[in-house]
Design the sequence.
């Protein structure tokens, strides 16, 4: 497994690969440590830029993968929220709505 | 040795509209057209204040934009320069003392360069950017020389 694997287009060696990863990693860490460090820690400079809007909590910003209609319901929430309030789950409320709507229909039909 | 000492020569600008009529903003965009082409000097508009050296502010600052102006100013790394472009941002302009205006800009954040005009000429913006550049060079030079002095003292 450790030996040299030669192919028509080159060779593969696990030891060489590990050495290269360590060498490249060392260069990356060196570059990172010599980069920008003038930002003020524990201030807004370390927070993400959201077009000037404050960062909301992780709980409020979480969108589950199963919720594929999130954008749809978010855009139409002013339409959905009153409808959700109407759906109380109480059969008496639903019966009341039927009676009310039927009464309005009879009035409209009767007047016209 | 810090790499950013050698990599921060180009001036990157973040543009923030705090309620402008877009007259000044159009003139800023004109700077990027082939006629003025400030990008040949390395000056370019960036999409995040975290990448910017200069904050370019237009508009008289309305109430909705005030917290965003302050946050974006805080998020711009130091050393930074603030340029106010247009009469509205400089003094409030025709919106002065209006019910929804809390500006001008220097009432809320420190301003380094004022470029008045309604709208301003692109040449005036370039002149303002050069003045901001001089300020940044001065600040960076001062901090670099103080660091060198510190190193010599410690040595």
Sequence:
């Amino acid at each position: 497994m450790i030996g040299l694997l030669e192919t028509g287009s080159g060779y593969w060696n696990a030891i060489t690969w590990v050495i290269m990863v360590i060498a490249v990693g060392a260069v990356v860490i060196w570059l990172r440590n010599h980069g920008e460090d003038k930002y003020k820690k524990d201030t807004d400079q370390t927070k993400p830029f959201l077009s000037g809007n404050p960062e909301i909590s992780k709980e409020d910003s979480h969108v589950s993968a199963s919720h594929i209609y999130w954008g749809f319901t978010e855009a139409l929430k002013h339409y959905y929220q009153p409808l959700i309030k109407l759906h109380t789950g109480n059969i008496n409320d639903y019966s009341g709505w039927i009676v009310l709507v039927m009464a309005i229909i009879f009035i409209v039909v009767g007047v016209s | 040795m810090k790499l950013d000492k050698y990599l921060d020569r180009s001036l990157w600008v973040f543009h923030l509209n705090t309620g402008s009529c877009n007259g000044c903003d159009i003139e800023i965009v004109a700077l990027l057209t082939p006629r003025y082409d400030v990008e040949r000097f390395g000056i370019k508009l960036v999409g995040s204040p975290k990448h910017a050296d200069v904050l370019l502010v237009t508009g008289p600052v309305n109430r909705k934009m005030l917290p965003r102006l302050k946050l974006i100013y805080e998020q711009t790394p130091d050393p930074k320069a603030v340029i106010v472009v247009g009469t509205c941002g400089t003094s409030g302009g025709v919106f002065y003392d209006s019910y929804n205006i809390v500006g001008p800009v220097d009432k809320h954040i420190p301003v380094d360069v004022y470029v008045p005009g309604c709208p301003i000429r692109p040449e005036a913006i370039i002149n303002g950017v050069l003045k901001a550049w001089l300020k940044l060079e001065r600040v960076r030079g001062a901090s670099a020389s103080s660091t060198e002095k510190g190193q010599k003292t410690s040595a």
Summary: The radius of gyration of chain B is 17 Å. Chain B has five helices and five strands. Confidence is low (pLDDT under 50) at residues 151-155 of chain B.
